[in-house]
Amino acid sequence: AQAAGFEVVAYEAYAKGAPDFKPMLNSLKAKNPDVVAFVSYLLDATLLMRQSREIDFNPKVYIGAGAGFSTPEFIREEGAGKDAEYTFSATLWTTDVKWKGAAEFARKFQERYGVEPAYHSAETHAALYLVKNVLERAGSLDRQAVRDALAATDMGPDETIFGPIKFDENGQSAHPMLVTQVQNGQYVTVWPREYASAAPILPTPPWSERK
Predict the structure, then answer these.
(1) Which CATH fold topology does 22-92+177-209 show?
(2) Would you give the distance in Å from CA 151 to the centre of its chain?
(3) What is the DSSP letter of 197?
(4) For residues 32, 35, 38 and 42, what is the CA-based torsion angle, rounded to 10 degrees?
(5) Entry pTM
(6) Degrees (nearest 5) of the Cα angle 43, 44, 47?
(7) Contact 10/22 with Cβ under 8 angstroms?
(8) Which H or E run contains 124?
(9) What is the CA radius of gyration of the chain?
(10) Which residues lie closer than 8 Å to 22 by C-beta, 6 or more apart?
(11) CB 9, CB 27: distance < 8 Å
């Protein structure tokens, strides 16, 4: 953040399973930050947003680094529910992202299992599709041939439900990250623009102005 020109006014850590975040949140509130970024699993993310409302903590942006802030459970009533509204999160996949087949996959998954798919489900689908594609291009089960076919993978955003798939010289995935925002109780993709389905709502309305 500092390298990008942002002033970091606080860095806080908490113990696993912490039952109360209000002391930490009040400390952050006193510093009046424009943006608060959380790295939290589901239960923590839920409690952080509920208690942020309870202490009337109103930064201009709440953003999560994926994990709990990007799961379907977070926006349900048993999660943060309405307190999740307007939060941003980084994620690898969304049900509304403009990638071929993504919306259809989400619909079929919902019909079969009765829940909205998390990005892990789409990631698994894409991984199996990639295995099929690599084996077809390799033309054999020879280890080197499979390795070379995998390294040469270069799928565009219209070829898989998970978007472009490509690997760098170190074998790391070059998959683009997405940014979502919770709007009207649903995750919508707001960044990058070419994959977005909605514009971001900024700044976050204060708790006192929410319905």
Answers:
(1) Rossmann fold (3.40.50)
(2) 26
(3) S
(4) 100
(5) 0.85
(6) 90
(7) no
(8) helix 119-138
(9) 20
(10) 51, 54, 55
(11) no
Q: Residue ranges of the domains in the chain? A: 22-92+177-209, 102-166
- Which position has the token pair 């500092």? 2
Phi/psi region, residue 70 (left: phi>0; alpha: psi -120 to 50; beta: rest), is: alpha
For residues 166 and 201, give the distance between their C-alpha atoms in angstroms, rounded to a whole number. 32
What are the backbone dihedrals phi and psi of residue 85, each rounded to the nearest 5 degrees, phi first?
A: -55, 135
Q: Do the beta carbons of residue 50 and residue 21 sit within 8 Å? A: no
5: left (phi over 0), alpha (psi -120 to 50) or beta: left
134 vs 67: CA distance, rounded Å: 29
Q: Which amino acid is at 33?
A: P
Three-state secondary-structure class, residue 61: strand
Nearest to 168 by CA among 147, 149, 154: 154
CB atoms closer than 10 angstroms to residue 116: 18
> Token pair for residue 80?
């943060």
The proportion of the chain whose per-residue pLDDT surpasses 90, expressed as a percent, equals 80
Helix (H, G, I), strand (E, B) or coil at 47: helix
**For the segment 157-207, what is each residue's pLDDT rounded down to a tens digit?**
888 999 999 999 999 998 889 999 999 999 999 999 998 999 999 999 999
Task: Report the pLDDT value the prediction gives residue 37, as an integer from 0 to 100.
Answer: 95
Instruction: Answer whether residue 78 shows pLDDT above 90.
Output: no
Q: Which one-letter amino acid corresponds to residue 202? A: L
